[in-house]
Structure formats: C-alpha cells, structure tokens
Amino acid sequence: MEIRRFFVSENDIKDGIITVSGDEFLHMTKVLRYKVGYKAFVCCNDGYEHDCTITEINKNFALLKVNESRLVDKKNIKLTLFAGILKNNKLDFVIQKGVELGVDKVVPFLSAYSAETKFSKERADKIAIDAAKQCGTAYLTEVSEMISFENLTDKIEDFDTVLLAYENETNNSLKNTKIEGKNIAVIVGPEGGFKVEEMRKIQSCGAKIITLGKRILRAETASIVLSTLVLDKLGELDYE
C-alpha cells in the first residue's frame, strides 16, 4: 500500500506524537479510509519528513507515533511570489508549479490591468496541498488572500531584495542583477502587465526592474520562469 503524505503545524508535534486534524484528518479517514496501524508520512514545513504509524483515531483527530524523522530538504532563503490575478483560473497553474519549485509563499494581487477580480483562497489552498503531496516536498507553500496594489507596495519594503519582471525593460537581466539577503520577493503582473506609473511606484519602493528576455512571456509563464531562475541563481535547486 502506498504511504501517503500529510501536513500539520509544528504545534501538532509533541513528545514523538503527531495530531492530525481538520481537512487533513478528513482526507486521511474519510477519503483514504486509513485505520489504526496504517503508515503515513507527516511534514510540518521545517524540511523534516516523519515516518509515522497511526495509533488512535477519534471523532475529530488522529494520533500518530513518530517512528523515524529525517531531514529531506533544507532552505537557505525564503522566496515570495507576488502574482497578478489571471483570467480562466490560470493562477492555479502558477500556484501548482510554484509549490513544485519550492516557492515559500504566493501572494495574488490586483493592479490596473487586472482582467480578473475574483480569487478563492480555499481553492488555492487545495491546489497547493495537492501539489505538495504529489511532488513529495516537506514544505507547504503558503497562499495568502488577494491584496490590492497599494498593499503590494507596502509589503515589499519588508524584503531584502525585490525583483519585478517588466516587459518593457531591455537592459537589466537577472544574470547581471545582484540578489542580497535571505528574504526575497519576485513580482509578475497580470496579463496586461503594469502601467508605467505602477512600475515606477514599485521601483521607488526599492524593487529592481529586470527583463526576462526578448520574448514576451505569458504572465503564468513569467511567474514560473522568474521563480526558477532566482532559485537556481541562489542554489536552491541543488542537492546539498
């Protein structure tokens, strides 16, 4: 029988016992029909994978005993992707691939050229956790509520380095851009890109404006390309 992966918070692990509750508990017991004695992998977003056995199933939670814990992944930086809301649920793709790459957080936002204004965090969270289980990561990407452009410019001041992919930039490439610090943000706009005034506002907040090359990429492609290039440049895609 395939051993499945579940995610909990750090507070759910105490003295070698893990409590699984909420949606993960329902998935474990109602969908997968797990019973006492079944094996499971449990992760709590710290790079460790816990090999467990279910010892007790109650009405609202299950208890699992940790048999073995191993460090399976290690992150040296934190990458946040600010992604413009996209039409036709294309942000689903961005979230899914961001999880697979190792993006720590995805923040959807609205801007002047956004063609879509609706966002379901519940749907996004489900996509993120399904992608995490599929790719075998020990980390669960956080997806935030949708924010406004004004919130975006407020938030980026908290990062060490902020990179904005801008379709009209022709000189500054990521290859020649210095990335400093451990808390990094990348920004990709919606299908219509950014107004010049928006780009300048973000730049005034300290962001570095870069090009992703001579071809105009779809917004969802640009999000994945930029995230991949940054993670690779910083060595986050390498084995240690």
Give a description of the structure:
With 240 residues, the chain is an alpha/beta fold. 28% of the residues lie in helices and 27% in strands. The chain is built from 6 helices and 12 strands. The strands form 2 sheets. It has a 6-stranded mixed sheet. α2 runs parallel beside α3 and α2 packs parallel to α6. The radius of gyration is 20 Å and the shape is elongated.
List the helices and strands and how they pair.
Blueprint: E1 5-7, E2 13-14, E3 17-21, H1 22-31, E4 39-43, E5 48-57, E6 61-71, E7 78-84, H2 90-101, E8 105-109, H3 121-135, E9 142-143, H4 149-155, E10 161-165, E11 183-188, H5 196-204, E12 208-210, H6 219-233
Parallel strand pairs: 1-4, 7-8, 7-11, 8-9, 10-11, 10-12
Antiparallel strand pairs: 2-3, 3-6, 4-5, 5-6
Helix pairs in contact: 2-3, 2-6
Keywords:
6 helices; 240 residues; six-stranded mixed beta sheet; alpha/beta; elongated; six-stranded parallel beta sheet; 28% helix
The total beta strand count reads 12
Q: Could you say which overall geometry the principal axes of the C-alpha atoms support?
A: elongated
Which strand-content bin applies to the residues? 25-35%
Largest sheet entry: 6 strands, mixed
